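Components:
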Amino acid sequence: MLKRIALAVLLVALATPALAQEKLKVVATCSILADLVKNVGGERVAVAALIGPNGDAHVYQPTPSDAKTLSEAKLVFANGLGFEGWMGRLVQASGTKAPTVVATKGVKPRKKDESGHSETDPHAWQSVANARIYVANIRDGLVAADPAGKAAYEANASAYLAQLDALDAEVKDAIAKIPADRRRIITTHDAFGYFAAAYGMAFIAPQGVSTEAEVSARDVAKIITQIRKQKIPAVFLENVTDRRLLERIGAESGARVGGTLYSDALTDGKGEAPTYLDMMRHNVKQLASALSS
Amino acid sequence: MIYDHLIAPFVEFAFMRRALVGTFALALGAGPVGVFLMLRRMSLVGDAMAHAILPGAAIGFLLSGLSLFAMTTGGLIAGFVIALGAGVVARATELKEDASLAAFFLISLAVGVTIVSLKGNNVDLLHFLFGTVLALDDPTLLLIAGITTLSLLTLAVIYRPLVLECVDPGFLRSVSRAGAPAHIVFLALVVMNLVGGFHALGTLLAVGVMMLPAVIARFWTRDITAMILIAIVSGAISGYAGLLLSFHTGAPSGPAIILVAGVLYAGSVLFGTTGGVLRQLFPGRHLEA
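Structure:
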């Protein structure tokens, strides 16, 4: 009897690390991507995000531990569209053999045409239709890397796609309730181009496409003049830039200062937007309540 | 025309008026402090102290976000600790004060950058380093004004020992024991003014509005009172012209202010009446007699 128990314990002890190793180690570059991968991968996948919750991708500096994470990964998910300018070098430096899946493959890229910039806008996930493309790419990438889990990945993906459909309908519904002439806001970080195009809102930014740019007095003056002239009803803040500047603009232009919109990073578990679905719902709720006159 | 370019921006936009008030207040408080730093050959101490403030502000930021109170308190505490620590090490060991200060501020800077990055995210370090003079809200303006008031009053109290220690420290030691306390109070003023400047211009450029006006003033007079006045005025001019520069050309506002001060400095080096280059090449008539 004792022997049998000992044998069972030994077997369990041997089996546990084997089970743990079955999880496919993958790396996603940012928290939003990591959340999507988590939903498609489910139990079979362990996801690490290089840029964690609340991080600012535009000022991210890869660390040695990031290179280590990469070198242990079997698969890397990147957003593409120029979002991770440092990715190529980091992949090379880490010596990882993991293939990189570009989640935006097949997304129609938006050019930033304002003020002469022709940079591509990388924040494609701000349109739920694009998130569907992300999910499909992630599913295909996971199936290719781990064919044994094909059925699970496909089931997870279609369940999540259904959730995305519901979300898309929800967003459209909420925006439709805002009077058409009030669907204009100002926000610090020009990351909502895809959202604007998909749902018929105008987002006007006081800064360029990147948070790296220092604001000048001319920019602030322009934006205040613009709000006054066009009677833009609300100004919004974002989780990665200076809150005081927008409050100043709001106070001076008479626009309502809305809550925080999350654009390129999720919050941690305690925050308002720990998942992609939460983030989109939160943003739409904020927009609706600030613009609903 | 002139009105449109030079005055209208401030009439039309409250944020420009606030920025102007903020830079004027900074110039008023930091100018005199800068003059004394320069006269005591401590011009680079301001720079070191500015870096030393970073970890305190970063800890404040970690604890309660972009909170004025937390970041100010953190910055003040870090600044005082570094100033006192460097002083203690300098008196208790063989190491000279500048060397121990260098050690302290470098450690402090590394701690600051580590803390900011360790939060697990990359929240813009640039906001610490460069600040936003355009986003001065009421509490920040009151803080800067309060610091300026306090530092002017304190300077008035310790003016005599401070001046004496600049020109003849041996004499001061022979007649009074006010030298050491005055020195410590003065270091506290340096820290306070840097913390005030840090909200408007960031840790890097706050030193600029302290030291550049002082060295500009040095080229125009040998009299301390006049030097302080010139420093204040040139600081204020830099603030005003820098904001206009940023308004008309789109240059980032903090660096624009310091750049204008830099241009004033270059002009003073060339044309200054006290030791300026041209003055030395073509000495005035009165020297011929």
